[in-house]
Amino acid sequence: MKMIDFRSDTVTWPTPEMREAMANAPVGDDVYGEDPTVNELEAEAAAMLGKEAGLFVASGTMGNITAALTHCGRGEEMILGREAHMFRYEAGSSAALGGIHPHIVDVQPDGTLKLEAIQGAIRANNEHFPRTKLICLENTQGTVGGIPITAEYTEQVGEIARKHNLKLHIDGARLFNAAAALNTSAKTLVAPADSVSICLSKGLCAPVGSVLVGSKAFIAEARRTRKALGGGMRQAGILAAAGLISLRQMTQRLGDDHANARALAEGLATIPCIQIDLSRVQSNMIFFDLHKDAPLTAEAFSARLKADYNILIAPYPGYTSRFRAVTHYWITRDHVQHSIEAIRTILS
Ligand SMILES: Cc1ncc(COP(=O)(O)O)c(C=O)c1O
Q: Which of 166, 265, 300, 327 is the most buried (most CB within 10 A)?
């Protein structure tokens, strides 16, 4: 990769081994259920997450919307974070496509939703109200800096869901980062969930795809929903072959990305014009701010890094001087050191 691209882990290219596996993947018509590589990927993802069945979908957004549409009917409600990807960045799809009423509550700095806020958002049985059907969590919670959510917290939310006969969905786009950060298994983190969507195409490097997992009955329904969304793919084994490498190998190396994020954060913390809270660096993301006395604006900072050093770090939307940097497979420790020195130079 010529550019050192910290904008996101979505920019990751497939590895050479993935390209090889894709070229040689056995395939069939997956809408007929006949693609052996897709079937293998779905079964393997389900087993890793402790669920009965899986469904290969085109993207994280499709995994989440397929889950929401399968759990909720029109006019029914889902409770989720104001800062959740499902609320902020999925084009209002749950409302637009499913007539689902999102009931948002604040996301805490540690990525959780206050249990009392969830409790308070659950509707009484009254004809004036929408019916509450679903609670959604995100792990890691991206918008607060890739903060992992513990199994203990998720179990408490699961308890609330069970008590009120609600379903629990986890947007696990970066669930394996959470597992690596908390030194536990992905399965443990999602034990109370009825459905989980994981992304193969972010830190796990596959070119395309997510897997939604849940019970056999849920996945049978979700298959219909996916078809309705136009997501029934045919010889998708070409893509699933890369996803199998994501699950088997790439999940095992995420600690390297986390160590690189920490090294980057610690290096940046030594630069006077940069403000960074090291305690918030817990997985593969860091947020940092330019001090108001910095010699460059946020836009000029990004532009200089790109033009002079081939480094891509974009200002974080909604803030005047905040940046997010994400580490991933294609960012090495040398890139990190080079980037720290480049930033030191342009801010001196
Ligand atoms: C937490 C989270 N969920 C879901 C998604 C959606 O994934 P996709 O871009 O594959 O639709 C993203 C994408 O960045 C994400 O960060």
A: 327
Do 217 and 165 lie in one domain? The reply is yes
Residue 8 identity (one-letter amino acid): S
Domain identity same for 207 and 264: no
**What is the best residue among 64, 202, 204 to mutate for testing ligand 1's pocket, by most ligand atoms within 8 Å of CB?**
202
Report the phi/psi class of residue 305: left, alpha or beta, with left for phi > 0 and alpha for psi in -120 to 50. Answer: alpha
Confidence of residue 99 (pLDDT cuts 50, 70, 90): very high
Q: Give residue 236 CA to ligand 1 midpoint distance, Å.
A: 20
How many structural domains comprise the chain? 2
89 plus 193 within the same structural domain: yes
- Compute the distance between CA of residue 39 and CA of residue 56 in angstroms, rounded to an integer: 9
Pocket test for ligand 1, best of 11, 107, 199 (most atoms within 8 A of CB): 199
Write down the pTM of the prediction: 0.97
Distances (CA, A) of 50 to 58, 59, 140, 186: 22, 21, 18, 9
Summarize pLDDT for 176-210 with one digit per residue, the tens.
999 999 999 999 999 999 999 999 999 999 999 99
Q: Which of 193, 222, 251 finishes a domain?
A: 251
Asked if 329 and 250 touch (Cβ cutoff 8 Å), the reply is: yes
- As a whole number of angstroms, the distance between CA 31 and CA 27 comes to 12
